[in-house]
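Appendix B, example 12.
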Amino acid sequence: MNLIIFLFFTIAEVITIGYVFFKMQEYPMELKLGIIIVVSIITAIVLRKVLKKSKGFLKKAVAEAIEWADTLIWSGIVAFLVMYFLLQAFKIPSGSMRNTFLEGDHLFVNKFIYGTRIFYPSFSGGIKLKMKRILVLKEPKRGDIVVFSAPPQALEPYEREAGVKKDFVKRCIGIAGDKIEIRKKKLYVNDVLQKEPYVILTSMSDDIPQRDNFGPVSVPEGHYFMMGDNRDNSKDSRFWGTLDKKYVKGKPLLIYWPPKRVKLVK
């Protein structure tokens, strides 16, 4: 029986790790690490009980498995804390930021530069989860590339109903108080035509409302106007409105995959 329990939990842990990294690629790294930590803790607890009743080769094998589980637990906790407070791994999901980022690029995102988000319960008017940003080093400015949680209005209706959570990456075009206008695909901020060498246009027409001729609108306090560099193929603030600062997560730091694309993000 001890051998069966040992094999079951050891194999289950290996399968879980494989599933998390190969089948849950679109999920946040923090969630994947959390699953691995929980499974490893359960495995370590069960195997310690098995160890007390084991002898010979099985005892050595169980002890080795416990060491591996403990290593996964502590390394997972350290990685979780780093990912939550300092760095986030992020995969570019679409072509909205071409050619700055390409589909499939893997990034490390600097999460502490715009402040660390701390979530805490609030009991006024019912139990709610609130967010506070601490240790803010700077605020997003015009031209910054920003990773942020997709606000509800940026999601499809079926995604909102299903409670889907997504991260987007766009460029900050306007900050609080700015007047934003697009005339025939050209961006004007506070009535000044902007030079945007990073922008690509894939359509010759300029008669699509919202996309090619937009505004003018003013960015409210505590909000940002976000747009993709691939202007003709980006669902951004032109379509779902300005971004509340509470959704900001960080600034891309480094493309680390694929190898030929490795570089610091400016």
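The longest strand covers residues 248-257. Helices lie at 2-23, 29-52, 56-85, 157-162, 237-240.
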